[in-house]
Fold this sequence. Notes:
alpha+beta; two-stranded antiparallel sheet; 11 strands; 18% helix
Amino acid sequence: MFESARSRLRAWTVAGIGTAAAIAVAGVLGAFGARHEPLPVLAPANPIDTGEWLLQPLKAYVTAEKYAYGTLLKPGGKALVLELEITNRTAKSTKHYFDVLRASPTAVDPATKPLVVLTRDSTMSPELHPGMPERMAYIWQLPDGAAAPASFGLTVIRKTYKPRDNLYGLPGWFNPTPVGTLTIPVGAGPDSADIRTDTP
């Protein structure tokens, strides 16, 4: 009787270990597959919906001028400038646009946030009003001695609106998630042509 109970216990233990191992392996394989699944490649000539914002990339270029839209650059330094049209799709004015784009580490230091400037009057980090498209410049200072890249890689981040969040029960935009990548050609300077197909 005791031997029979021992046998059943051993069988359950082995089965439990096997099940746990199978679940662990499946989880690892699932995570591995998700981590290595490539992001969609977005067309820079088309508008991009990120939830809070509608983005229209316009052009990218490197400048060695002393100022870029009123922003003082380091002496002898260069800056990579990305111009794009941004439309606030929310119901209130906001400037939560700093994290909507992540620069490729091959072009700039990804730990460095860009300066964001309103091109029409060089206002630094303005709040953008709902439904009003504005032309903005994202400015990254390039490392000393860095050559101008031929193209500029970016990852686009989207957030999801929740009427009530789980922590405070308040509305907001949450769960930043990469939705695609962009590759934008880098022009010779501020006079470079826009990349939109409808722009001469």
